[in-house]
Amino acid sequence: MIVLNYHELAEASPSNAWCLTHQAFEAHLELFEDKLIAPKTFLERCSDSDADDAVLLTFDDAFVSDYTRVYAHFMKTARIPSFISFVPVGLVGESGRLTWDMIEELDKAGASIGSHGLDHVDLTTCSDRELERELTRSKAILEDRLGRQVPLFAFPYGRFSRRVWEAALRAGYTHLFTIQLGGHRGFEPFLYSRLCVTNAMTEDYMRQHLVDPNSKRGLAWKASAKLGLYRSMMRARYR
Ligand SMILES: [Zn+2]
Question: Which domain holds residue 27?
Fold first, then answer.
């Protein structure tokens, strides 16, 4: 399966590389709308291999466009909102971000809500105490609001290390989402790779990614995968 990571959607003039226009996002949807998979189905099948070409949508940073564009799109097409919204809990209610009412509505309607920490900090630079607070406090607040378990976590900036993932697992998260090329399965069974979509990625790039999510990987990956050394190489890198 293929997991895509989006951020803000805007009418025009994207403010940064991770912001897409509505038009660009809709063109992407046309490419893979019939392959979209609900988070629940993804979680049931995610321990399988990469063979399946289903697409899971994720949105980071709790931008209000998760509600006003993405959720609205699914409502318009009378479909269950099939995406995960990763929420940095400390940003909820700020200008341009989701409110708690919106988050609760998304959750009730069938979108999945995951944690993206509290204050959107690079967790690899946090002290042990701050790290634990980012992970456990954000989880507890979301669970209190939603009245259910929140097992999904996305690393802010895609930055992580072994210390960070061990703390996330200790905090009770079971599925940790990174920013890495390739199919959905990361180099550890609890890590899930996502393509971070930027507005420089053309429709051709996206089309290619859907056909072969490994096509943009470098020589090091190709060589180590061939020799069966990829996992140990990554474990050494993220020590
Ligand atoms: Zn983020």
Answer: 2-213
- Return the CATH number at 117: 3.20.20.370
Residues in CB range of 217: below 8 A, 6 or more apart: 181, 182
Cα 223 to averaged position of ligand 1 atoms, centre (Å): 31
**d(CA 156, ligand 1 centre) in Å:** 4
Handedness of CA 40, 45, 49, 54 (dihedral sign): negative
Cα separation of 66 and 30, whole Å?
Answer: 18
Angle at 207 between CA 204 and CA 208, to 5 degrees: 85
Count up the domains in the chain and report the number.
Answer: 1
* Cα 85 off chain centre by: 8
Please give the distance, rounded to the nearest whole angstrom, from the Cα atom of residue 219 to the centre of ligand 1.
28
Inside any domain, residue 44: yes
Distance 100 CA to ligand 1 centre (A): 18
Q: What residues have a C-beta under 5 A from ligand 1, the ion? A: 60-61, 156
**Is residue 222 a part of any domain in this protein?**
no
CA of 177 to the centre of ligand 1 (A): 11
Could you report the per-residue pLDDT of 43-66, keeping only the tens digit for each?
999 988 766 889 999 999 999 999
- pTM (2 decimals)? 0.94
> Is residue 235 in a domain?
no
CA 61 – ligand 1 centroid, Å: 5
Q: Which tens digits make up the pLDDT trace of 122-151?
A: 999 999 999 999 999 999 999 999 999 999
Tell me the CA–centroid distance for residue 60 and ligand 1, in Å. 5
Any domain includes 237 = no
